[in-house]
Amino acid sequence: MKILAIDIGGTGLKAAVIDASGRIVSERLRMPTPYPCPPRALVNAVLALIAPLKGYQRIAVGFPGVVRNHKVITAPHFGNDVWRDYDLGGILSRRLKRPLRMINDAEMQGLAVIRHKGLELVITLGTGVGSALFRGGELMPHMELAHHPIRDDKTYNQYLGDRELKKIGRKKWNARVRHTIEVLETFLNFDHLYIGGGNAKRLDFKLPHHVTAVSNVAGLEGGAMLWRLRNYA
């Protein structure tokens, strides 16, 4: 079985064909996310990106927002109003004539990296902050952590997002990541935290023993595990 994995990000779109274990077996393709990004613009961009990829039987999509039953519930980076209840998964499935599963992008990344032990938290640092929570390897209900305040009325997105990194610089941003790890540990008492996303490579301090930085490629590799979920909806 081959799976077309699509990772939709606030800054970039990525795609590749993976096998049933999550190993990438094609060229890995990338293009900037279009802006502004209403549904039609994103669909056209995704179809253009994946056009060279062939030989897959299923599709897995990670989307930066709340997703339920193929539909977008929230799309904070693209505009909630124009995206609410948009059947992105259904439209892509019909256009590509393949069965499709779609979840939050941080959740898809988490599926590739978790160890299925205890309470595991995944956060992604990119355009904004994504999050996913797993207990005993089982995906928990999605938390929109990014939109909760963390300090001085700033949300996680405003505190750690890419725009703020460019504004305050890498040193101050890393200090904020340290603080965020402490806050999340107090909040959730996680057994392990995984930090992914495009800005994870900008971490420059020694992580605690139960915190691991993971490759952004996991956002594609998790597509294989998405097709193994029994409680997918």
Task: Give the SSE layout.
Blueprint lengths: L1 E7 L3 E8 L9 E4 L6 H12 L7 E6 L3 E2 L2 E2 L7 H4 L4 H9 L3 E5 H9 L5 E7 L3 E7 L2 E2 L9 E3 L2 E2 H5 L1 H7 L1 H19 L3 E5 L14 E3 L4 H9 L7
Parallel strand pairs: 1-4, 4-7, 8-13, 13-14
Antiparallel strand pairs: 1-2, 2-3, 5-6, 8-9, 9-10, 11-12
3D structure, described in words:
- The protein has 8 helices and 14 strands.
- Helix 4 packs across helix 8 and helix 6 crosses helix 7 (170-188).
- The strands form 4 sheets. A 5-stranded mixed β-sheet has the order 3-2-1-4-7, sandwiched between helices. It has a 5-stranded mixed β-sheet with strand order 10-9-8-13-14.
- 32% of the residues lie in helices and 27% in strands.
- With 233 residues, the protein is of the alpha/beta class.
- It is globular and about 45 Å long.
- The protein has helices at residues 39-50, 80-83, 88-96, 105-113, 156-160, 162-168, 170-188, 218-226, and strands spanning 2-8, 12-19, 29-32, 58-63, 67-68, 71-72, 100-104, 119-125, 129-135, 138-139, 149-151, 154-155, 192-196, 211-213.
- It has 2 domains: 2-107, Nucleotidyltransferase, domain 5 (2-Layer Sandwich), CATH 3.30.420.40; 115-218, Nucleotidyltransferase, domain 5, CATH 3.30.420.40.
